[in-house]
Write a structure and sequence with these properties.
The chain is α/β, with parallel strands linked by helices. Helix content is about 40%, strand content about 15%. Bound molecules: pteroic acid (PT1).
Length: about 290
């Protein structure tokens, strides 16, 4: 396997085995009722805990994009994420990513130490490609049909696997034309973003086809409602099925798994990697015939 190392603003992210991205939501509901400074301390402590548990990157987000979520102003998003990114980058060498659609937030986050832009809007905001090209950091382009407020109302596709792959490849092309290095682009099919349960399952079943387009693939499946739809489990009972989905993605070549449950996911992925790496290590004896 060729060594694949992403340069996240000077912090290496090695992708020769599947890695865990730890989710750090900094929304008012996630670290509430302790006041502004305590909320920052709690978020940083949670980030460092995920580093201890084996996260290879921490994804800091200040705008919820789950189905039905409301928009957040630039100032509110900056107030939430920038102090957390600054403090986290001071406290650890692990790369930090910023989960945002807004070019102004991308700029401030990278100035604060972030080394990767994770954009569920695939840099379609005005000026977003120029911004990331200038910042020189890697970017994850995600597929979404519609917008968070309404995306689950009536998702429809002809061939969901081809349409999602073609969209992402077109966005990657636009990014490369706009000055973002090909080596700095990751793709994400966007599980739960304008997709029915069947769409999500089809996309995961055929994830190897997205991987074969030649960009590192990132997936977020942790605790998502597709698990609730298939197994009838509430969000706090979705760890084991989330691990199953993570391994199905990694087995097909996904390089980064975005998750709330870092320790458990890392163990599942390390075991998956142990099996996958045997494919390239001829340890068996040739069988004598005749
Ligand atoms: C994701 C992702 C993300 N997901 C990337 N960034 C969320 N790159 C935020 C549900 O169906 O998959 N990839 N940033 C969270 N969004 C959702 C969407 C959360 C759907 C929950 C659901 O439950």
């Amino acid at each position: 396997m060729n060594p694949l190392i992403l340069d996240c603003a000077g912090r290496p992210l090695e992708l020769s085995r599947p890695r865990v991205m730890g989710i750090l939501n900094v929304t008012p509901d996630s670290f509430s009722d302790g006041g502004e400074f305590l909320a920052i301390d709690m978020a940083v402590a949670r980030g460092l805990q995920m580093v201890e548990e084996g996260a290879a990157i921490i994804d800091v987000g200040g705008e919820s994009t789950r189905p039905g979520a409301a928009d957040v102003s630039i100032d509110a998003e900056l107030d939430r994420v920038i102090p957390v990114i600054e403090a986290l980058c001071d406290a650890t060498d692990v790369p930090v990513s910023v989960d945002t659609r807004k070019p102004a937030v991308m700029q401030a986050a990278v100035a604060a130490g972030a080394g990767l832009v994770n954009d569920v809007y695939a840099l379609q905001a005005d000026g977003a490609i120029d911004m990331v090209a200038g910042l020189g950091v890697p970017v994850c382009l995600m597929h979404m049909q519609g917008a968070p407020g309404t995306m689950q109302d009536d998702p429809h596709y002809g061939d969901v696997v081809n349409e999602v792959g073609d969209f992402l490849q077109a966005r990657a092309g636009a990014c490369i034309a706009g000055g973002i290095a090909r080596e700095r682009i990751l793709l994400d099919p966007g599980f739960g973003f304008g997709k029915t349960t069947d769409h999500n399952l089809l996309l995961l079943q055929a994830l190897h086809r997205l991987v074969s387009r030649g960009f590192p693939v990132l997936v977020g499946l942790s605790r998502k409602s597709l698990i609730g739809k298939v197994l009838g489990l509430p969000v706090d009972k979705r760890l084991y099925p989330s691990l199953s989905l993570a391994v199905i993605a990694a087995w097909q070549g996904a390089r980064i798994i975005r998750t709330h449950d870092v320790h458990a996911t890392r163990e599942a992925l390390d075991m998956c990697h142990a099996v996958m790496s045997m494919a390239t290590q001829a340890l068996y004896e040739p069988v004598e015939t005749g």
